[in-house]
Design brief:
Layout lengths: L13 E4 L35 E2 L13 E7 L12 E3 L2 E6 L3 E6 L5 E5 L20 E3 L2 E5 L4 E6 L5 E6 L16 E3 L2 E4 L11 E6 L5 E6 L25 E3 L4 E5 L22 E5 L6 E6 L15 E6 L2 E7 L4 E6 L5 E6 L9 E2 L6 E2 L9 E4 L13 E3 L4 E8 L1 E6 L16 E6 L7 E7 L6 E8 L7 E3 L3 E5 L4 E6 L5 E6 L9 E5 L2 E8 L6 H7 L11 E6 L2
Parallel strand pairs: 2-33
Antiparallel strand pairs: 1-3, 3-39, 4-5, 5-6, 6-7, 8-9, 9-10, 10-11, 12-13, 13-14, 14-15, 16-17, 17-18, 18-19, 20-21, 21-22, 22-23, 24-25, 26-29, 27-28, 28-31, 29-30, 31-32, 33-34, 34-35, 35-36, 37-38, 38-39
């Protein structure tokens, strides 16, 4: 793959300010986490409802064509790109790059205020899920991260000075489990979900005291029940919860999508039982870690269709409050926000062959078609999912949920292997998946606008190669997206008409955000290809291997 002039291990970050003059920004302390300031992007999905919707309106359908680059920040490490969704609070950007490099930046100019480069254990260079990170969390005057060598760390929000660190996992002893996503702030508690699912580990979710880093509880994502885990399969059953969770302050509940069981493909008897709580949803009491409710979307998952990749969108309609969650298997599930009762299940992908359908009332999987040992098994969607971990966006103005979808299948050939035989740099799939076209034509992607509760589609854009970045909507009726080729796009959220595009230089896997400083609105795109899925995407779109590598935050504004 091509690389830019920066070394992947450059010791210094570069900022290029393309605005006249310098805007001084004082770092303010963030106390309790709030989502009511329209100028900020204070958490991973911006708000507690996880909508990735901003009420800002300065950039409109009429003037978006006049966007130009305001500044560029380069973190100095480009291996695995830049996968984050940056946070912006009171004029300061909190950003994280590969090798867990953390930056506080002036949001008007991109100038560095402070940085923190952790000293990582050498295991970070040996494990599979590294060196990328998807974001940070900010609250209580601290910046919180999870590291690729298994630690939770808190930094002083004003200075970047390390305040505490807690070792939660030992990657050498847990098949490489670590942290690649930000923790979830739930009042005075933090929750962390480690990587898992594709490795022979016992997955957990951790609850920490946000002030001290003290471990308060650990929830086992592999239920201690011989009916769920036959023999000694639970010992290396995978699970975990590798994406950030969601906190619902109205019910004081933390929600996580859980990872798939290991090995991914069961050749027969590898993990007898339904494998609770994997490939589903768990709702936890943040103070105790005890489950309030759970729903297993794919019992005994045979395809790697885990629930960790899906966000938790909260939608209120007709006096009813619902949670919308998707998994990699191509279905979207709608739950009652209070009880977790299933309200609906609808197909997101056009090509789904691994089953005949999901009962929308019970969630029962109809006529599953599990892969068989000794055969080449064809299934749609593929192991990367109908959607990957990138997050959609919901606009309350249009009532539509926007989501990137992949129409790709795979052929799986299973093989028996022991978890102890798998090196830290590899995954315990229990087979080899090879990307394949869907029935009737070549693989493709599409950007959809749908009713999140019913799945009714209003419009669709076919994209050829799928887009795999998160999305952003604004109160001015705009939808922003980035593609793998390196283009940033702005669309009319009502119609899907493209209104603007700009070449970022490298593809987008992270999430664009918007914010305002001194009354001026900005849009930021994290540019830089990376993640574990990219090598699989290149199986069917080999031109991806020739796309430029990179890592940069690119900020846009008007005038």
């Amino acid at each position: 793959m091509k690389t830019c002039i920066l070394s992947t291990l450059n010791s210094a970050a570069l900022s290029l300010a393309l605005v006249a003059g310098t805007v001084s920004i004082a770092v303010a302390q963030t106390d309790a986490l709030r989502d009511d300031n329209p100028n900020n992007w204070p958490m991973y999905n911006r708000s507690f409802d996880s909508s990735r919707y901003s009420p800002l309106k300065e950039i409109t359908k009429d003037n978006v064509k006049n966007l130009h680059v305001a500044w560029i920040h380069q973190p100095g490490a480009i291996l695995q790109g830049l996968l984050e969704t940056p946070l912006v609070i009171d004029g300061v950007i909190y950003s994280i790059a590969s090798y867990d490099r953390v930056f506080a930046l002036n949001a008007a100019t991109g100038e560095e205020i402070w940085h923190y480069f952790p000293k990582l254990d050498d295991v970070a260079n040996e494990i599979f899920f590294a060196p990328y990170s998807r974001g940070v969390a900010v609250a209580h005057g601290r910046v919180y991260i999870g590291t690729i060598d298994g630690r939770a760390i808190a930094l002083d929000q004003k200075t970047g000075k390390e305040l505490w660190q807690t070792k939660l996992t030992d990657p050498r002893k847990c098949a490489g489990c670590n942290f690649t996503s930000p923790p979830t702030v739930a009042g005075n508690l933090l929750t962390y979900g480690p990587t898992g699912g594709d490795i022979g580990d016992q997955g957990k979710i951790y609850g920490l005291d946000a002030a001290t880093g003290k471990l308060v509880w650990a929830f086992e994502t592999l239920r201690d029940d011989p009916k769920s885990w036959g023999g000694d399969s639970r010992r290396t059953g995978g699970g975990g919860a590798w994406m950030t969770g969601a906190y619902d302050p109205k019910t004081d509940t933390v929600l996580y999508g859980t990872s798939n069981p290991a090995p991914d493909f069961d050749w027969g008897g590898a993990r007898p039982g339904d494998n609770l709580y994997t490939s589903g949803v768990v709702a936890l009491d943040p103070k105790t870690g005890k489950p309030k409710w759970h729903f297993q979307e794919v019992p005994h998952d045979d395809w790697d269709f885990d629930g960790a990749a899906g966000e938790f969108l909260f939608v209120e309609k007709d006096g009813k409050r619902s949670i919308v969650h998707s998994n990699k298997g191509g279905y979207v599930y709608v739950y009652d926000a209070e009880s977790g009762a299933l309200q609906n299940a609808w197909p997101l992908a056009d090509n789904i062959t691994w089953l005949d359908g999901v009962d929308p009332k019970t969630g029962e999987l109809k006529n599953r078609k599990a892969p068989k040992f000794g055969e080449k098994s064809y299934a749609c969607p593929w192991i990367v999912g109908a959607k990957s971990w990138n997050t959609g966006s919901y606009s309350p103005d249009t009532g539509l949920w926007y989501q990137n979808v992949m129409e790709v299948c795979n052929i799986v050939e299973m093989d028996k292997s022991a978890p102890e035989s798998i090196p830290l740099s590899a995954l315990w799939f229990g087979g080899t998946p090879t990307a394949a076209n869907p029935p009737g034509g070549p693989a493709y992607g599409h950007l959809d606008a749908r009713d999140p509760l019913t799945g009714q589609r209003k419009w669709q854009i076919r994209t050829g190669m799928p887009m795999m970045g998160s999305l952003l909507t604004t109160a001015s009726g705009l939808l922003f997206a980035g593609d793998l080729k390196g283009w940033a796009h702005a669309y009319d959220a009502k119609t899907g008409e493209e209104l603007w595009k700009f070449n970022l230089g490298s593809g987008t896997r992270g999430g664009p955000v918007t914010y305002a400083v001194n009354g001026k609105q900005y849009i930021i795109f994290p540019s830089g290809l990376g993640s574990a899925a990219i090598s699989l995407v290149a199986q069917i779109w080999p031109e991806l291997t020739e796309y430029p590598a990179g890592a940069a935050l690119v900020a846009f504004t008007l005038n």
